[in-house]
């Protein structure tokens, strides 16, 4: 196997990948052979009937039947079939079964969380701590499996009016789809073709466009919300020469509040700024020098992005959290071990970074980062937590 690695700040070459396989085998597309089947045929037929599976009570026995305190975190347990409620001060306080290998999640103003699992979109009442429904995908994804390359939902987003959920569905070995869920009828109403492995889904502030970040096809699919017409924008600041074997692909995007541009960090070296209306891209320098995944932009335009660790330990830096102000100034907070995604407290003073990670090296917990002092502490919670929201 080969990896597409850093030869210098401006060039990449293909080199033998023994170190690459050990450290970042998953970021280059593989066969998914490590995935294990947990249920056969649940989403194997395209165009299957869309039904809802209500669940009277999916919460754990010790979960309290009262609304979560403000500031409680909710994480997806990619290593299990649950979401876990986390008190930032003391750890996990209960879990709810949602479906196999949950990935992304999004929270509505009504307190319902929408969770992208391998089996369908789960709907969770966060006050009652129960799963209300499981909405199967319309897209055929094969047997339900676990692991990095599993089929099913990945990125997920909610329209500003709360009427539609958009979920990126991975189809192993091929291009994915964007599925549109009616949040009242609780069913899939439309599907849109997108690129390969839709890691992330975002929505413009006015709800007029949906942005799907496709890891393995080096692009973002821009979908007009009204017509559902898609168009492709290539995002490949290092080129596409490595193909599926390249590590230098887009992972997550954040929508910049000031102008609606998409911000996609790469390798702690380059921030790609995409104008979704024209497709034009510009590149700004970054400083963390580490492979980057999760990203979020706060209301004032500050970008936080997670560094998972080095591609090449001889040249790259370790895991970190980059905090980048709108003027481009960066503060780098080192982290212990790989992490995947990040959320920010309501007051903007604390970041919560999930330790689940999509590859080897993950751990069952979060790192809590004080953004003023830079102090960090590890908080055990969940099972390979990936997605995260603040309730």
Short description:
The chain is mainly β and 391 residues long.
- Structural class call reads mainly beta
- Helices, by number, come to 1
**Segments where pLDDT lies below 50 for 5+ residues?**
1-26, 30-65
Biggest β-sheet: strands ordered side by side in the sheet: 6-5-4-32
Distance between the termini: 43 Å
Largest sheet: 4 strands, antiparallel
How many extended strands? Answer: 32
Helix coverage percent:
under 10%
Radius of gyration: 19 Å
Averaged pLDDT? 87
Describe the global form: globular
The amount of beta strand, in percent, is over 45%
Note down, in words, how this protein is organized.
The chain has one helix at 18-24; strands spanning 2-6, 12-16, 37-43, 73-77, 82-87, 91-97, 105-107, 112-116, 120-125, 130-136, 142-145, 152-158, 164-170, 177-182, 187-193, 198-203, 209-214, 219-224, 230-234, 254-255, 262-266, 270-274, 281-285, 291-297, 303-309, 320-324, 330-334, 342-344, 350-354, 365-370, 376-380, 385-390. It has 391 residues and is mainly beta. It has a four-stranded antiparallel β-sheet with strand order 6-5-4-32, with no helix packed on it. It has a four-stranded antiparallel β-sheet with strand order 7-8-9-10, with no helix packed on it.
Keywords:
disordered N terminus; mainly beta; 391 residues; single chain; 4-stranded antiparallel β-sheet; 1 helix; 2% helix
